């Protein structure tokens, strides 16, 4: 390659006083970026709680209901890499602001929806603008905090918001649906977006774009189609089966297109995803850790919520509150691990141990029954999950952007979000099948009755949690094998226009 995108020097050796990393408002910038990240992550779960009320109001079928969730996931997952690269090419500030305005506008349309089609269209638009917003937020963080003494703390706070967002979404969704209307789970995004937008316009420096390479059109079309096919294929499993021809066709097509994409990226002059980003062991192992974390986390939020509400009778608000110990564990771990543990034991040890702690928390929750109490049987597992997830997330986010030049931080950040999104899509399909099989097996070997039905539900949820624990153990093993135990290099700062 002949462009400046393929420089060999490590980013850590390229920082200087002209880069964004030294500007005085960086901690306020973190508040802005964190607000946007919280909005995007909580939106993944806040709508789920409101779906029954929206379905009753707009009158759509059970079979159609999944498209309110799937529409967002398809647009978000398939366009993330393009969104990240657009930030690299046209400026992260511009992409971030565009994403905020678009996401807020789509949320208003969704909140005011008078039909199922408008609601799904709004969710697709939300996913599209989130694909611009999420990579821009993480890449802005990466080019803003380049000092080794500050970077871990900033990533810890950002990771805490990312990890807590989904759980906060469950609580917020329950509160808004129960106390106001399902429409407010959409309208509430406008408040988050407005705060972040004002901060972005006031605080984010304008980047100095000296070179604007061409967009890799073949790569963009190929990977977008591949990710769409994979996400759609796994979503289709939930309503059909693993042997359904449409499911198999989309999954096989997605895998083939991904292989074509990798081949293309090794040939073109201006690749959408420079392969050097993933061939580095620290970054490649970190992307893998985020993927596995996405797989495990979805089983926690989805099936543990089912257990709390369907098996032991919690209201949506009570179920949301039940996740608070896990949120506090994530926050505590994310904000202390980077400064206390990471410099002493290294990223390999932190990520491996984090997965094992999370797996132990998940294992505790596999013992849940219809008579389980919150303090004795649910909360200990929640706390361990939070501590483990926080340690993995803050270290993997930092590792995935380690040593990245500022021209590549957008696509590197997009790949983090893509890994998490695809991991979640795979696990939702896989664990839905596991839950269904466990319930069927239990019912086939016990006398019919209300108690048997209730216990079958518990069996299905605990089976998914056992798989989640296994997924985290696999993540620990892969991390121990792949990730080198060396200090994480910072990213390169971004050149900005002086005021």
Q: What's the CATH C level of the largest domain?
A: Mainly Alpha
- Assign the CATH superfamily of the largest domain: MFS general substrate transporter like domains
CATH topology of the largest domain: Growth Hormone, Chain: A
The major beta sheet can be summarized as: none
Radius of gyration: 22 Å
Unreliable runs: 1-22
Number of domains: 3
- The second-level CATH architecture of the largest domain is Up-down Bundle
- Average pLDDT works out at 87
Q: How far is the N terminus from the C terminus?
A: 34 Å
Compute the number of helices. 17
What is the succession of H and E elements? HHHHHHHHHHHHHHHHH
Describe the secondary structure blueprint for this structure:
Layout: H1 26-58, H2 62-90, H3 92-111, H4 116-144, H5 151-179, H6 184-203, H7 217-239, H8 245-265, H9 276-279, H10 281-311, H11 316-322, H12 324-340, H13 342-345, H14 347-365, H15 374-400, H16 409-444, H17 450-482
Helix pairs in contact: 1-2, 1-4, 1-5, 1-6, 2-3, 2-4, 2-7, 2-16, 3-4, 3-6, 4-16, 5-11, 5-12, 5-15, 7-8, 7-16, 10-15, 10-16, 10-17, 12-15, 14-15, 14-17, 16-17
Give an overview in words.
With 499 residues, the chain is mainly alpha-helical. It folds into three domains: 188 residues, Up-down Bundle (Growth Hormone, Chain: A), CATH 1.20.1250.20; 55 residues; 213 residues, Growth Hormone, Chain: A (Up-down Bundle), CATH 1.20.1250. The protein is 77% helix and 0% strand. Helix 1 packs parallel to helix 5 and helix 5 packs antiparallel against helix 12. It is globular. The two termini are 34 Å apart. The N terminus is likely disordered.
């Amino acid at each position: 390659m002949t462009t400046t995108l393929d420089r060999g020097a490590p980013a850590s050796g390229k920082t200087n006083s002209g880069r964004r990393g030294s500007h005085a408002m960086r901690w306020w910038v973190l508040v802005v970026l964190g607000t946007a990240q919280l909005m995007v992550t909580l939106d993944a779960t806040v709508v789920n709680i409101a779906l029954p009320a929206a379905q009753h109001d707009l009158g759509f079928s059970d079979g159609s209901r999944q498209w309110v969730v799937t529409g967002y996931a398809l647009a978000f997952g398939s366009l993330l890499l393009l969104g990240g690269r657009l930030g690299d090419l046209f400026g992260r500030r511009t992409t971030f602001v565009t994403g905020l305005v678009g996401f807020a506008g789509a949320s208003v349309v969704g909140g005011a929806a008078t039909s199922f089609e408008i609601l799904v269209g709004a969710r697709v638009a939300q996913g599209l603008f989130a694909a611009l917003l999420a990579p821009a937020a993480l890449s802005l963080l990466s080019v803003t905090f380049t000092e080794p003494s500050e970077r871990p703390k900033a990533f810890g706070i950002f990771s805490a918001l990312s990890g807590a967002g989904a759980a906060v979404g469950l609580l917020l969704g329950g509160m808004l649906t129960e106390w106001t209307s399902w429409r407010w789970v959409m309208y509430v995004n406008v408040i988050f977006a407005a705060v972040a937008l004002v901060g972005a316009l006031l605080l984010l420096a304008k980047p100095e774009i000296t070179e604007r390479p061409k967009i890799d059109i073949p790569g963009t079309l190929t990977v977008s189609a591949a990710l769409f096919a994979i996400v759609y294929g796994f979503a289709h499993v939930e309503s059909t089966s693993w042997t359904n021809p449409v499911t198999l066709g989309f999954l096989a097509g997605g895998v083939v297109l991904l292989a074509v994409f990798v081949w293309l990226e090794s040939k073109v002059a201006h690749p959408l995803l420079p392969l050097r980003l993933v061939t580095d062991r620290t970054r490649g192992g970190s992307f893998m850790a985020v993927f596995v974390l996405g797989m495990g986390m979805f089983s926690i939020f989805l099936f543990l919520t089912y257990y709390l509400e369907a098996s032991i009778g919690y209201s949506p608000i009570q179920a949301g509150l039940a996740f608070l110990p896990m949120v506090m564990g994530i926050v505590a771990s994310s904000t202390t691990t980077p400064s206390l543990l990471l410099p002493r034991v290294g990223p390999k040890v932190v990520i491996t141990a984090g997965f094992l702690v999370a797996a132990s928390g998940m294992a505790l929750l596999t013992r849940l029954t219809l008579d389980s109490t919150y303090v004795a049987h649910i909360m200990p597992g929640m706390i361990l999950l939070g501590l483990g997830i926080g340690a993995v997330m803050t270290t993997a986010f930092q590792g995935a952007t380690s040593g990245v030049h500022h021209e590549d931080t957008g696509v590197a950040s997009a790949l983090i979000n893509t890994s998490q999104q695809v991991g979640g899509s795979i696990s939702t399909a896989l664990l839905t099948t596991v839950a269904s099989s466990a319930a069927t097996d239990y019912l086939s070997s016990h006398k019919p009755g209300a108690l048997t039905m209730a216990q079958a539900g518990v069996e299905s949820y605990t089976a998914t949690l056992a798989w989640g624990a296994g997924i985290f153990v696999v993540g620990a093993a892969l991390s121990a094998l792949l990730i080198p135990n060396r200090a994480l290099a910072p990213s390169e700062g971004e050149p900005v226009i002086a005021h």
